[in-house]
Amino acid sequence: MKLNANLSRYALSLLAAAALVGCGSAVKLDEPAPVETRPVTAATSNTANTQPMAESTVKTVDLGAQLTAAVANQRVVYFDFDSYTVKEDNRGLIDAHAKRLNNDRKLALNLEGHTDERGGREYNLALGQKRAEAVAKSLTLLGVNANQVEAVSFGKERAADAGHDEAAWAKNRRVELKDK
Question: How many whole angstroms separate alpha carbon 91 and alpha carbon 78?
Fold first, then answer.
């Protein structure tokens, strides 16, 4: 039995050695591998066009100027009678100013609160201040630094429309956003 086991091991060793010798002789390492050669055409050549490239004509975008132009005609937030709640209609205007102020932290706004002629002087000054502060709060909630906005009230002293009817009063209930 011992002889039979030794013969089996010997036979397996011979088979393994033959397999290794056969594999080793199939690949010749001293010969270069074959490479396919193709003719170079203008479409595949990187050096076919020897003319210098023109400089880029991409224009620089001035985001600050674009944002300033976007708010140029949007400088007034209007309010309902006896209210200092910023209406949904004014959200786009406030968003545009917030983007501009967030883009350039050196910019600042005066927020001038106004009222119509109805009500006493002290009441209108307080209401104008609350309106200006409501706009300031809206801007700060959109990321504007509090030191970039200053709320001030003029009450009924600086009317936009001197009329004495609802149309005139609606124009006077406002906050004007003015650059410092």
Answer: 11
Angstrom distance (rounded) from CA 61 to CA 59? 6
Tens digit of each residue's pLDDT (9 = 90 or more) over 43-54: 555 555 566 666
Whether residue 46 is contained in a domain is answered as no
Torsion of CA 59, 65, 70, 76, to 10 degrees: 180
Count the Cβ atoms, other than its own, within 10 Å of residue 11.
10
What are phi and psi for residue 110, nearest 5 degrees?
-95, 130
Q: Are 148 and 111 in contact (CB under 8 A)?
A: no
Pairing of strands 174-179, 109-114: antiparallel
pLDDT tens, position by position, 88-99: 999 999 999 999
Query: How many distinct structural domains can be found in the chain?
Result: 1
Q: Are 83 and 143 in contact (CB under 8 A)?
A: no
Nearest to 143 by CA among 100, 91, 110: 100
Assign residue 82 the CATH number of its domain: 3.30.1330.60
| DSSP code at position 153 | E
